[in-house]
Specification:
Elements: E1 19-20, E2 27-28, H1 42-48, H2 75-101, H3 104-117, H4 121-124, E3 125-126, H5 136-146, H6 150-163, E4 171-179, E5 183-190, E6 196-199, E7 205-208, E8 211-215, E9 221-224, E10 231-241, E11 244-254, E12 259-261, E13 266-272, E14 278-281, E15 284-288, E16 294-301, E17 306-314, E18 317-320, E19 324-326, E20 334-336, H7 345-364, H8 385-399, E21 403-418, E22 422-435, E23 440-454, E24 465-470, E25 474-482
Parallel strand pairs: 3-5, 6-12, 13-20
Antiparallel strand pairs: 1-2, 4-5, 6-9, 7-8, 7-10, 10-11, 13-16, 14-15, 14-17, 17-18, 17-19, 21-22, 22-23, 23-24, 23-25
Helix pairs in contact: 3-6, 7-8
Amino acid sequence: MSMTHFAAPADDHDGQQPRFCPHCGHPVDPADTFCQNCGYNLVTDQATAPDHSAVTPPTTPNQPTPQPRRQRLTKKQKTRWWLGGLVAVILIGLVVWGGQYYSRTETLNRITADIQSGKHLTRDFTTSSTDLKLSASKLAPVNRYYRDHAQALSDLKQQLAAGGRSTDGTFAYRSTGRHWLLFPKYQISVSPVYPTVTTNHAKTVITLDQKTVATASSDSYTKKLGALVPGEYHLQASGKVGGHQLTNSSDYHITSDKTYDLELKTVSVTFNTVPASTITLNGKKIGSADSSGTFALKNEPWSANMNIQATYSSTAGTAKSNSVLLDKNADGTSVDLNYPGVIDQSDADDFFSNLFSSVQDVANGTDDDNDDALDSFFQNGSGNTEYQQLKSMADGYYKDDDIDYTDMTTTIKDIKPGPNRTSLVAYTVKYDFTLDDYDYDHIQTFQYTATVKDTSRDSSADQNNQIIKISPAQKINDYHDDND
């Protein structure tokens, strides 16, 4: 049997894998330089073709790029964010509040309030003096003075706010550091004072605010006190003179290196004032003026701060006389305690005589040429109720057909001081009515008390004194006087 040989088909690729055009995908021969279908340069492609396995396929035009998914905050993270924001708000609020609270003006407001109350003074005051160590007791005299002198405290505050220093130079308001490293710290810096005391008898004990500071070693003794904060202090000297125990004791507002005389001696002084006035020594009652207006002060231990004043109380209020500071040479003298603005007897006589002369002219219809207009005697002029009533009374007399003529005579009975430069003037008016068709005059006398204001310093007033009000009339007598 013979074998039939089958020929294998020709292999054009020499055992190589088929090749395709990278541009159009058409089969190409490995020996081809150009694609027979599209003309693509196969040689160049082989030399320069990139590694397509590493190339990111191009995105389709207008197709959005995928965004990474946003991760949501956890509850714990949200809590941290809220707490952080809250802390930031609180810090901002504290900065704003601190800027206001620690400001120069607000700090001074708090310090003056502390001076008035006596609280926190060691926080409010400082000093650069090595002689003075501040403490609550050392600063107490500041409160002691200003708590009783509100106007002085107001003046001090104004001085520190405007110029940063008190008028006497003892207090300076300035920044002395920082609060919380952010805000200025303001305090009052104190310059101490060094007063001196003297006395005139050996063995005299000298005290400052009830604490002994020295005992006199001679009859001409001088002692310089240590550094003090300006304020109110109680100075006292006590000792025996001629077998009698004497004390020179008083309160002093010490603001300089002044010398204070604590001499031991007594004074006897006579005071003249309004009867029944209360006499005070440094604000404390020591007696009353008698019916003649006299008060005798006898063998009173003298001090350099003896302030004498009289006060008079009435239903109108309390009047105060001028105050007198007694020096050590006042012994055996007589001193007047006058009330400012009180009208004197002579001026009161003239004032009420002229007033009722004007009223009389109205009552008799002869007021056309009167130089003193009736309303000029009254505060607020024709608007004064007392003027209106007096004018109405005079008009009534003028219109009364039974009255032919009216005569008015005044007499001053008493003058007492009133508050705020006023006088309480008690006076009588005698009305003598001449009647038509009658053979007698009708006579009446009434007493009044007028509150009279001193207007001598008022340029708009027509009189040096003017009536504010008049009390209701009190009839003194009422009778007929025959003309025969």
